[in-house]
């Protein structure tokens, strides 16, 4: 499958230092809309502002995390728009997903993506109830890790953020194994998009679910981060900042170890302390 990537662009910027100005070229993170269309349903299911790159993985991860599909085999093809009436470059901002013949999907849960964001979300109780109705069981607690292993994650995440190093304007989501080895990292201007890309990549390569794995995100853990982690069956979710109250409620409801403020040799555990070796 052909993909398209223009994650950063170069633009002129004035730098003012010690009262003097100079003009130089600087890289900025690209932000453009991505429209995800279901071909068989003849409809657009989501429009999200994202950083171009791994668009097919983002679409696959989004559909999986929202419960529209349950496995890679539910996807027949993913492609960019081929409509000749649309400007050539803009076609790369539209992804067409063809699902397998006969698959019946419920699109009602996707309606919120057209009018909500992290600042005006849906009711917390309704959000958790929606996940219950999908039938997600509690995540098993067999996996255990040491604080030392967790301390090593932020530096690995930061070192692997190639586009962030060039632009300073991207979030990241990374998956680690039980030994703390970085397996994959995805970047995007939206942390939820980065996680969709990460989970979508694993879905398309048949590496889901994420049993015995750790997810770490830059920024904070929100409702969207926990929702996607529950779908991918992630036992441990870490972030460098604080979680939201709804994220904590969801972690406790579904058995996720939720860690925040993971910086240096310190972190907070908001749920699932039993997975951490402590004295």
Write up what this structure looks like.
This protein is an alpha/beta fold and 279 residues long. It is built from eight helices and twelve strands. β1 and β2 form a beta hairpin. The longest helix has 14 residues. The chain starts with 7 loop residues before the first strand and ends in an 8-residue tail after the last strand. Keywords: Cytoplasm, Molybdenum cofactor biosynthesis. Its main location: cytoplasm. Required for formate dehydrogenase (FDH) activity. Acts as a sulfur carrier protein that transfers sulfur from IscS to the molybdenum cofactor prior to its insertion into FDH.
SSE order: EEEEHEEHHHHEEHEHEHEE
Number of helices: 8
Helix content: 25-40%
On the 0 to 100 scale, the average pLDDT is: 85
The geometry reads as: flat
Give the low-pLDDT segments. Answer: 114-122
Specify the structural class: alpha/beta
Major β-sheet profile:
6 strands, mixed
Strand count: 12
Distance between the termini: 50 Å
Give the quaternary arrangement of the chains: single chain
**Which value, in Å, is the CA radius of gyration?**
19 Å
Strand content: 25-35%
Which strands sit side by side, in order, in the main sheet?
Answer: 8-7-9-10-11-12
């Amino acid at each position: 499958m052909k993909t398209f990537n223009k994650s950063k662009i170069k633009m002129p910027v004035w730098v003012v230092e010690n009262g003097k100005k100079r003009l130089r070229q600087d890289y900025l993170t690209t932000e453009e809309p991505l429209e995800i269309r279901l071909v068989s349903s003849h409809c657009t299911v989501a429009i999200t502002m994202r950083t171009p790159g791994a668009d097919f993985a983002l679409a696959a991860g989004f559909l999986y995390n929202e419960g529209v599909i349950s496995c890679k085999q539910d996807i027949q093809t993913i492609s960019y728009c081929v409509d000749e009436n649309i400007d050539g470059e803009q076609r790369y901002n539209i992804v067409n997903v063809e699902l397998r013949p006969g698959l019946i999907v419920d699109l009602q849960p996707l309606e919120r993506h057209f009018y909500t964001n992290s600042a005006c979300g849906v009711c917390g109780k309704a959000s958790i109830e929606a996940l219950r109705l999908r039938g997600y069981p509690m995540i098993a607690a067999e996996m255990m890790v040491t604080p030392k292993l967790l301390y090593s994650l932020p530096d690995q995440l930061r070192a692997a953020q190639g586009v962030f190093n060039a632009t300073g304007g991207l979030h990241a989501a990374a998956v680690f194994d039980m030994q703390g080895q970085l397996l994959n990292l995805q970047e995007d201007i939206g942390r939820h998009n980065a996680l969709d890309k990460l989970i979508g990549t694993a879905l398309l390569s048949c590496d889901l679910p994420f049993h015995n794995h750790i997810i770490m995100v830059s920024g904070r853990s929100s409702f969207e981060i926990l929702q996607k982690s529950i779908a991918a069956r992630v036992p441990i979710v870490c972030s460098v900042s604080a979680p939201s109250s709804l994220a904590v409620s969801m972690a406790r409801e579904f058995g996720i170890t939720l860690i925040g403020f993971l910086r240096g040799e310190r972190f907070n555990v908001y749920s699932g302390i039993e997975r951490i070796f402590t004295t």
